[in-house]
Amino acid sequence: MDHPFQCIEVVHRIDTPYLLSACGPKLSSTSLSTGEVVSTWTAPGSEDTGLRTEIPGPGKLEDDAEERPAKKQKTATSSATSLSKIIKLTASPDNRHAVAVTDDKCVRVFEIHDDGKLDELSQRVMPKRPCAVQVLPDNSTILCGDKFGDVYSLPLLPKPESSTHQPKSDGSQPPEEKSKPFKPQATTQTVHSKRNLKSLEAQMKQKNLTTKTKQPLAFEHKLLLGHVSVLTDLTYATREVDGKQRGYIITADRDEHIRVSRGPPQSHIIEGYCLGHTQFVSKVCAIPGADLLVSGGGDEWLGVWDWPNFSLRWKFESFGEDTRKALVQGGVTQAEALPATAVSGIWLVPGDLDGRPEGVVVVACERVPVLAYCPIAELRNALPGRTPKWSFEPFDHPVLDVTATGTTILLSFDTRSKSHERLRACKLHITRGECDVLSVGSVGEDTMQAAIKTANSTSSDVTDEKDLDSLLCGIANLRKRVNQDEAADHDEPAENEE
Amino acid sequence: MAGPPKKRQKREEKQEGEMPQKKYYRQRAHANPFSDHGLISQRSPESPAAMDWPQHYPAFATQPGSEPDNQAKNPKTITQQVEIADIGCGFGGLLFALAPKLPTTLILGLEIRSSVTEFVQQKALALRSQNASSGLYNNVSCIRANTMKFLPNFFSKAQLSKIFLCFPDPHFKARKHKQRIVSTSLNSEYAFVMRPGGKVYTITDVEDLHLWMVEHFEAHPSFERVVGEEVEGDVCVETMRTETEEGKKVERNSGMKFVAVFRRLEDPSWP
Question: Where does the record place Basic and acidic residues bias (chain B) (predicted)?
Answer without folding.
Answer: 10-21
